[in-house]
Amino acid sequence: MKTKSTDKLNFAGAPIEDYAMIGDGRTAALVSRGGSIDWLCMPRFDSEACFAALLGTVDHGHWRIAPKGKAKVTRCYRDETLILETTFETRTGRVMLTDFMPANSDRSCIVRRLTGVSGTVSLETELVIRFDYGVTVPWVNRIDDHVLTAVAGPNMLVMHTAAALHGEDMRTVGDFKIKKGDALDFVLTHASSFGPLPPSLDVNTALTHTDAYWRRWSAQYKQGDKWGKEVKRSLITLKGLNYRPTGGIVAAPTTSLPEQWGGARNWDYRYCWLRDATFTLLAFLNAGYREEADDWQNWLLRAVAGSPEQVQIMYGVAGERRLDEWEVPWLPGYHGASPVRIGNAASGQMQLDIYGELADAIAQAMRGGLPRPPRQRALREAMLQHLERMWRQPDSGIWEIRGPPQHFTHSKVMAWVAFDRAWRVTEKEAGNKRLCAHWKNVAREIHADVCKNGVDKDRGCFVQAYGSDHMDASLLLLADVGFLPASDVRIRKTVKEIERCLMRGGLVRRYQNDSGVDGLEGDEGVFLACSFWLVDNYVLEGRLKDANRLFRRLLRLCNDVGLLSEEYDPKRKCMMGNFPQAFSHVALVNSAINLMQAEKAQKVRPKGKREEKPVRRHEKQGR
Fold this sequence. Notes:
Structural class: alpha+beta
Number of strands: 28
CATH class of the largest domain: Mainly Alpha
Number of domains: 2
Largest sheet: 15 strands, antiparallel
CATH architecture of the largest domain: Alpha/alpha barrel
Distance between the termini: 61 Å
Strand content: 15-25%
Shape: globular
Helix content: 25-40%
């Protein structure tokens, strides 16, 4: 397939907020309000896409089912499930399209059921399968009146349906009418081309089982009704981003959705980041999902097993380390935002913060009463030996800059976290006293180094990097991890400077792009997780009105089915970045629980008594 000039292309991708996600614990699909599946990778999140219209045109693969002509569209997830229900209302009647992926199935498949609600509706479908990210046209064969196969190389998709379909211009199309009470099913299943055909699916049984599975899982949440709907939707989304065979959680099911309209800040997020470790663990633990928290902990420790010098910032869903980055020349990108990238070169970066994340995740898992994985202590000691040699070096920081490494303040603080958690855990367990004292001394040394070099002497606030005068939203985590109490004047001044320098449209950017720190051209939107971190700081400072105001503002950015992307463009008023974004939903869950706990504590506190709010990630704070 030849690359075409972007000004002549008919881009297929709807606004990012127009999509909903369905998934099965192995992969996920994005379904537009118009009834088109524009992104799907099979059989795993990081497999080659067979529907890639999201990053190009319909010629790059999609599957649309919709009424002919105009229709009013409403949609929602069936209560507390990942089953999507889209209702089309035309002048002649109403029909519901139910999209889901069966839970706990042996192989991934997409089920699309049309149900007549009233009158009669004329509909059409167009199925364009293009393997290998939209470039490979398969052979489509009719097995019988109800079964079609699409084969190319090792890949095969099998369609089971009673609808009359036929080939037309390298596509599979069909027209049909649905009357009130009618039901018409389509089942698209992935299989190996060299294996047997998968059997037909009993859709009624699969739908009943999937509905029951999600309702049982959602019922584990016991934190209360306030924001319960939004928190449950975020938790369900996180579960949908969980790769069930290993416990890994992908940052997003997509690649290359841009951080700036038409820009080049386009990255592949279909991998698992250590950066997300503690936030994700806490979100599951605080919400009552111990099994998911334990699966995530075990995935982390398996992924980083081996030499501490070889620990990466991200891995594949099964812990793969080769995530080589390459550009897809035949995909023009989401509405022309190019290049489209597969793989992520940041996997080879050195980031000091990941050692703190691992140490904190281990500490939080122990506090949460999770089973201790084998060799956990040996792993911690090996990691700290390596970090003790490395923490004075510059790194690429939490935001994976592609400019020169620097001495990022947040990175040094997370190095402190690694030693701080280690000595506290060891002391509590009455472990090796000599080692405990040594780690405590290293933590003190790093703490003093950060307070000396990471603070702007004129403004009295922490800054992005040693010697810099720029701000960074990661500094909002300093009180959260217990480096200093939220009442410390340096923390309060840091929050004020972030409000002054990084706020755009009332929300928080990651850092000042015009500083050139990331080595990239262009700008980006506000980073939604960072805005939730500001909510957490307001809670720690006792500014509950400000925290509530900002939190509610962020909730209003969720799309009609409760999903959040990575970023938001306040000018265009649209979502940007990969979608749905695990980091945004993890932050939403944690901020909601922080707010609820703070408000509950405020109600029971004796009148007139003022006390420091407990930090979320650490019960004691640095000095």
